[in-house]
Amino acid sequence: MRLGSPAGLLSRSPPKLKNLRYRHRTRGLPFSHAEFIAFNSPFTLDDLVSQLRFTPAAVAADVKVAFRRFLTYRPINEFEFFFESIGLPPSSSPAAASYRDIFPSDEARLLASVSALVHFGFPWTKLGLLYREEPSVFSSEPRLPRNWGIFVIVDEAVIAENLKYLTKLGMEEQKVGPFILGCPDLLGFDLENPSVAMPEYLNRGGLDKNEVTSLSQRYPYVMGKNKLGNLPGMMRAMDLHSWFISRIWDGNYHYLSSSFVSAAPHDTAIESGFLQGLDRVKRLKEQFVDNKLEFLLGIGFGENKITVRTFSLINSTKDQLQEHFDHLLEMGIE
Fold this sequence. Notes:
With about 325 residues, the protein is mostly helical. The chain has 3 domains: about 15-105; about 110-190, no CATH class; about 195-330, no CATH class. Helix content is about 55%, strand content about 0%. The chain contains 20 helices and 2 strands. Strands 1-2 form a two-stranded antiparallel sheet. The longest helix is centred in the last third of the chain and has 16 residues, at about 270-285.
């Protein structure tokens, strides 16, 4: 009879406790870590236990003996237990395969990063969210967050969106995770709705005034208002993404705060020209006006006359425009 089968008569508790003792005593993991792993990896444990065979008369003592004997002669890949315990599905074995060893206890940086995160309040079972988005967090020197409580109260989707936003801004993927750990209060920022005004925002960001004037002349279609959520597209449209992300990386992430963004004045003449043009187009009952405007703003256009004239000349839907745009990017055209 297989202990892991539905017909198994023995409790799962002995294997879990044996798993806990093995990780704490034999592998030298801190007790709390061993406990988290042992009691949050049921599928991997079931798979392991299903390899043990017993007679119908087997009792709990037989489980302990069989488990000890199995672990003695058949080393197991403990990363599979670890990854399941932090919230990754059991099928995430490729993640375990990314480590040359099979014992997490031998990965000093991994344990240091995990210990730091857990110590500062990050739920163990949600560590997988960070691993999915930025595995480099677990292989770099741990940077202890100052406002650690935000990891507990911020929704998973918000964390994922913020990580994605920094990547879109141009930050290297392997740096995003460590950067977030160094300034977790960034996760409390609204990176979507605040209004950004160009070129005034560039002036506040420390760009040389002559350069700002030159950019206004070279990229007039970017000028005017836009949402902060579209800032990555605006920076790329002006070829400023490398400069801007370097400013953010150097400690100026407050450039993304609503207070900093809203403090920049805006050109009322540009705004007036945009609103008049938009009203005129809508009175002509053009199709897909809002969708086309949303697409153009997303790729870096600002709220100005040029933008109004541009979406008046295109007839595709937002999805069709996005498909064509993505195709151009795949071809290397920026």
